[in-house]
Amino acid sequence: MEKPNSSTSSLLRTKSDQFVETMAAALAAMKSPVSSSHEVAASAVGGGGPEGSSSSFHSRKSSRGLAAASPGRSSGHIGKNTHIRKSRSAQMKFDVDDLSSGAALSRASSASLGFSFTFTGFTVPPDEIADMKPYSDEDIPEDLEAGMPKTKKLHTEPTLPIYLKFTDVTYKVVLKGIRTTLEKEILNGINGSVDPGEVLALMGPSGSGKTSLLSLLGGRIREPTIGGSITYNDQPYSKYLKSRIGFVTQDDVLFPHLTVKETLSYAARLRLPRTLTKQEKDQRAIDVICELGLERCQDTMIGGSFVRGVSGGERKRVCIGNEIIINPSLLFLDEPTSGLDSTTALRIVRTLHDIAEAGKTVVTTIHQPSSRLFPKFDKLILLGKGSLLYFGKASEAMIYFSSIGCSPLIAMNPAEFMLDLANGNVTDITVPSELEDRVQMENSEAERKSEKPAPALVHEYLVEAYETRVVENEKKKLRSPTPIDEELKSKVCSTKREWGANWCEQYSILFWRGLKERRHDYFSWLRITQVLATATILGLLWWKSGSNNPEKLQDQAGLLFFISVFWGFFPVFTAIFTFPQERAMLSKERAADMYRLSAYFVARTTSDLPLDLILPVLFLLVVYFMAGLRMNVGSFFLTVVTVFLCIIAAQGLGLAIGATLMDLKKATTLASVTVMTFMLAGGYFVKNVPVFISWLRYLSFNYHTYKLLLKVQYEHISHSINGVRIGDGYKEVGVLLAMVVGFRLLAYLSLRRMELH
């Protein structure tokens, strides 16, 4: 740049003048002939004099060639240039000819700011023009916008293409009061469609019916209050589709103590076809982990409320992996980006695009997408109070609302603009003349002064506008047959279920999964301390109380009764929580046909047995020898077996109460009353029970356990201890075994009833 002289004209030169001269020189250089394919003319950048410094501009192609020819350059420098090129190309995409005239810059400025004005008079240097040309995905070595290395796209084998159509969908829920019954309308006349390879977004404010519509389309709600038509390849819903549909719920329902790899491996073994071996299924799980970018946390526990685990974005990707592992034709997701930052949300939406590109149909609800997320949806449904406000291409939504007189007055995220409209908020939005006239006619004088239409009027106007302008044309399109073969249609209407594993395999997988999940609970320091502390206190209170005198054994009989009560009370209140706590997981996995209910029930109840045997053995090792009970190997073994019978019988009662009520407060209350009754009728506190209520003792597992313990310890001394007659013990064993089976059968039937309901 030239040094300033002392003349007045030189002092009056401004930076703007210098910039204009510089741009003019750059334009002249750009228009001059190029000597070779790797060089362009040089032009001055400074004050324009011959003394000023000059810069050599290279074309986009030549700069790529230089980068390739010099591999020794630092990766940081390359990454920086790539980031600059990507950001510039994302801001402006226009031709070189437009740049030379300055018109494109005027359009870009007015479009980005939301105003209409022109700003011309300068051009851009050719090196920046090269930088502004949009790069393809292959040119970008890193996924800079998401902040993570670019992962490979999902490579899945071909799947059955499913065209989803729905017409005039309505849904009502029945609210039953004490005296009256009301019907609440959730959805009213919803139309739409989505084809393989497309991503359909369901958008609307809270309470607009997004999740209800998603559940209806995914076959998760089957009630008589549903109206309209929902077809899959022009066929109605069938059970066969369960194996073709992936459904990611809004709440991340996962086992907290399993790792990411274990979670996906168990899902693969249960859901993938039987034709695949165990090794192939496990490899599919590893492939999904790599495809979703979960390698770093694959050996980390999922975590929960009280367990540290993976992050929210990783947890959401695990939920998506749980569904895409089966290569579904239809994938439904309920607000997959809620609670995530914009970068993580963008990564998840990109993953959905990769899934759709593999020929799958993707439908997702979205609450408030960022400005980067919204353009990535192919189709959009906008809901408001259960009514349809817009259905069509997401890129044409703003054009439609402009056509009905609703446009933003300021630069605004399209998603925010449409959510404001759906809520009836027209702040910073143009109000159509028709709506203004309606406000003047219907509103009072006070409301006219506010000059803002009520939200109800805005909603009514939007619904009417869509019904009069769009609905009929969309219905005609939906009535046209889907362009697919009859063979594909017949596959959808098949009613045959396809289990990923036979009953024995399902039982084995669920058994080991349950064992891994609950080993942390059983071997927690709190539970072990509780059992050992109780055993120590009992041992000290009944220290060496053994005797061969029947009259001196009454105190020790109290110890035996306490053992029967403790190991009856403890398992009941542990088992009560089993099914209510796993209800969400059970509903989710059963809705996806992952396994038979009988396999789950047997595996769930038997996977606890090895763990349930360890703590009683530790308990008896302390109490038995401290209290001086019968020193005989056979007696000790029979005592352990008796306590174990009591535990599994009491567990059955807890499972039955929990499965029947499925409410922890009600179940805990009922269990407290039941256990107290069984304890009082156990034969220790009351010897002479009235005849009309004496049958209660035969329902008490405490009573039968107490009699068995007396027989094991004192049959060689006396036939009656503390007023309780000692028999041969076969009847007591038979009753306890009947309780083990009977209570569990009741629990299974209760689960079956819940599943059907």
From TrEMBL:
Gene3D superfamilies: P-loop containing nucleotide triphosphate hydrolases. It comes from the Eukaryota. InterPro entries: AAA+_ATPase, ABC2_TM, ABC_transporter-like_ATP-bd, ABC_transporter-like_CS, ABCG_transporters, P-loop_NTPase. SMART domains: AAA. It is a multi-pass membrane protein. Residues 164-410 form the ABC transporter domain. Keywords: ATP-binding, Membrane, Nucleotide-binding, Transmembrane, Transmembrane helix, Transport. Residues 32-44 have a biased composition (Low complexity). The keyword Cell membrane does not apply. It is found in: Membrane. CDD domains: ABCG_EPDR. The chain crosses the membrane at residues 522-543, 558-580, 609-627, 633-655, 667-686, 733-751. Residues 31-89 are annotated as: Disordered. This is ABC transporter domain-containing protein. It comes from Penstemon davidsonii. The lineage of its organism: Eukaryota, Viridiplantae, Streptophyta, Embryophyta, Tracheophyta.
